[in-house]
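Let us begin with a simple case.
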Amino acid sequence: MKKLITAAMTVSALALSTGASQAGEIAVIVKTTNSNFWQNVNKGASAAIEGQKDHTMTFNGPASESAVADQVNLVENAVNRGVSGIVLAPSDPEALIPAVKKAFEAEIPVVIIDSALSDSGKDYYQSFLSTDNCAAGQLVADKMISEIGTEGKVAVMSYVAGVGSEIGRVGCFTKQIEAKSKIEIVGPYYSQSQMATALNQTTDVLAANPDLDGIFGANEPTAIGMGRALVQSGKAGKVKAIGFDGNTDLQDFVRDGTLAATAVQGSFQMGEIGVQTLLKLLSGETVPSYIDTGVVLATKANIDQPEVQNVLY
């Protein structure tokens, strides 16, 4: 009978059970390949695999973050072809659990990045790397309060409801606003991580709320759409806007004042440390169950400083 890797496994036992089969493909599967954020994860993963003789890396993801079934298929296909390990950014905290369980039963180690699986799936992977999304949401909320004060109206432009990162990021932003101010929250609105959808939603929100004081775009495509809507409506710089993630579009919005700030995750680090963590597992080393990859608030005042430049992409 196939030996299962238990939740309390020692990593050395994993190494012994996999033996020579450790060498081979590491599958990095993200929420979508159509995003600069995830392409930066790819760069980090590629940097980690560079120079490896025993391992190769593949990078894949569905066409959009809402294509959850496609991502499930990618994980199942990786398991079926017998990859050495999987680095996965799950698009849904529940839907990916059966596929990750299949990897567990096949003795394929899994490192989760960016968004957590729900508690019922926690025994099927070995390490979780992410931004502390709750802390990031609180940081953005504090910045918003510093920009508009403790009264007013703020809209929340979110991405995919129920995703682990969204629950922490947007949920803790809202709770912090409610705890520290009398600001009225409008939304959240869900763009499904589609820039065009976020642009249209933001345009509608701005038209329906002429007294809006602030607005938060909670991930890269959402924040870009939000920023473009602010520019097109003539409200850039008038409505205090904060984004999330750090591609060139968002950097430009910070520099020209469309955004008061953008919270930037260590996307390169997620890919790099994710693959490094998997390589450690395959070599029999113990790894932390959780690794915080950090967040930096980029503003016009600090965007050219090294600590901020290191996380921009």
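The second case is a distinct protein. As before, the sequence precedes its structure tokens.
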Amino acid sequence: MKTIKLNNGVEVPVLGFGTFQMTDAQEAEKAVRDAIQAGYRHIDTAQSYMNEEAVGRGIATSGVDRKELFVTTKIWVENTSYDGVMSSFQRSLDRLGLDYVDLLLLHQPYNDTFGAWRAMEELQAQGKIRAIGVSNFSVEQAVNLAEFNDVTPQINQIEINPFQQQTANIVALHDEGMAIEAWAPFAEGKNDIFTNPILTKIGAKYGKSVAQVILRWVIEQDIVVLAKSVKPERMHQNLDIFDFELSDEDKAAIATLNDGASQFFSHADPKMIKWMAGRRLDV
């Protein structure tokens, strides 16, 4: 599988398996195991998903050597401080049943991000984390973190889909030496994305599904992308995107779908910040 090289030399499989909203432990464990057996080598979870234990069991029972896998987890807002990272990261490792993770992200740009980042720098230096990054940070927030600390974020995981294309932000982050990872590439099915006439037409040209077209569109921008499904047949289908290329005409057509706004919520909305500050996970 194609990989993206981060600014510290670590390589990330360009297509990852997401586990957001997989809260049923048995379903999550089976989905992760099925995904790895289907060919995924990049697994993404988070403290706030409340499924790290199940993800760990899926990894352990997959039959694939740990060294072949790229595992990501994320620090939740209540743990975003120096002490919070130091304590909660070890609990994440314990739940995952791992000695290290390949990528650790600050899940949201709130609370003491500078203190948390210093802890992550230390853990990376100790070899417990191969790469460190952020999630849902604006370009300004990511650059601020980079300029006033020793380590530039290696990746920023942000919402990217045909309705929220973030073209200018992608260019700016790449210019700063930060890789980009896309969450919600299918916009969780919003706006009838899977029957969108433009995407459907492009898919028909190549004998591909709308989902495959979207994933191909993302990786052709040198962006890591996360796809989620609990159905093995969909897992295999989402992996089958390396045998075609989109034309300039295709990309121009997809560009017309851009609304330029989140399909979920604004990270600048004070109400959302207060909601996240009040969401206690005890993890």
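The chain has a mean pLDDT of 97. The chain has eleven helices and ten strands.
Keep these points in mind for the review questions at the end of the chapter.
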